[in-house]
Amino acid sequence: MSAFPAESYRLFPWTVYPKPGFFRARYVDLHPRFRRIIDSLPESVKNQELLNKLDGVNEQLKESIRIDVISDADLTHKQYILDETVLQDKADILVPSSLEICVCYIHCAKLDDAFAMHTDEVLRSLINVTGRKSADTAFLAFDFNCPVSAEDIDRVTSYVFQKLGLHAESDRGKLKFVFVENEESLPLAISEYLENLEGLLKETEQKMGSVARVVRIAKELAFEIEGFLEQAIGNDFRPHAEPPIVFFEMRMEILRLNYVYSVGTVYNDFVIYLNGQGFEPTTTEELEEDRFSTLKMSAEYDIKAVMKKHCTFFPYKIQVFSMPI
């Protein structure tokens, strides 16, 4: 063992951890749409603390992952990342992220004075790297030459907590222990940590869905109120918004497109209904709202071609029927 563990770092794309990489891409795609809806609302209905949190997460996810490595020997990438193939022929310029993961890898023969001395050196290096005693993204990986018992694990964790002065349960939870059994033990532990991103994504989608429902109800209510005002005022009434003008010939061309079931005007929106029955969602479309994204993209391509042919454009919405019609 080296008396002074070596320190190094490297930037990685999120895709080195496939599942967190997938949800990261979804979050970065979803966030701007979420903000467009939220920013259209009055300040009084906004939860600014939550918005700041989501904005910060978005900025963090747009960047790369920085992994600091503290080890007594050189580590190969596959000892702390899951997918090396994404690194091949990758010429992208990676922007440093505020998200830093510190990996401390300790090779151990047995629990003795040499182990304690070496662990002390690693912890000192950890404090130097993180600049604080309680790193919230620090993984301590212990690679023993022999099987370890539950009692040995308790002794190791207790020793580390004592040396770092971590007594509160909240502080202890910020340090992740990994007892290496195979070469995937550490990368899987890091991936599971990053998969907390999935919870943030679902939270954003739920908030976005709630806000979208409020906006839709408000719009429908405004439409109904305008109807009452028109009846009361008569011909002098001027509505706030009017439905787009879609000529009969264009309607017929749109109706002839694949998967288009019907078209119509609903609350001043021109809506194109697609028949999703029998359409198989792709395996990557895991989230409910994305089940028919491929179908929608194909339909939108054809709809825009019709508009281009007639040298006109109008706003429209797409809805999919997945039940038998």
For the sheet with most strands, the description reads: 5 strands, mixed
Binned, the helix content reads: 40-55%
Total of DSSP H or I helical runs spanning 4+ residues: 9
Instruction: Estimate what percentage of residues fall within beta strands.
Output: 15-25%
Mean pLDDT: 77
- Our Rg estimate from Cα atoms comes to 28 Å
**Order of helix and strand elements from N to C terminus:** EHHEEHEHHEHHHEEHE
Q: Provide the domain count.
A: 2
Stretches with pLDDT under 50, minimum 5 residues: 282-289
Number-wise, the strands total 8
End-to-end Cα distance, whole Å, is 71 Å
Describe the structure.
This protein has about 325 residues and is of the alpha/beta class. The chain has 2 domains: about 5-200, no CATH class; about 240-325, Alpha-Beta Plaits. About 45% of the residues lie in helices and about 15% in strands. The protein has 9 helices and 8 strands. The chain has helices at about 20-40, 50-60, 115-130, 150-165, 170, 185-195, 195-235, 250-255, 295-310, and strands at about 5-10, 65-70, 100-110, 140-145, 175-180, 260-265, 270-275, 315-320. The chain has a 5-stranded mixed sheet with strand order 1-2-3-4-5, with helices on both faces. It has a 3-stranded mixed sheet with strand order 6-7-8. A hairpin with a 2-residue loop joins β6 (about 260-265) and β7 (about 270-275). α1 packs parallel to α7. The longest helix is centred in the middle third of the chain and has 38 residues, at about 195-235. It is elongated. The N and C termini lie far apart (about 70 Å).
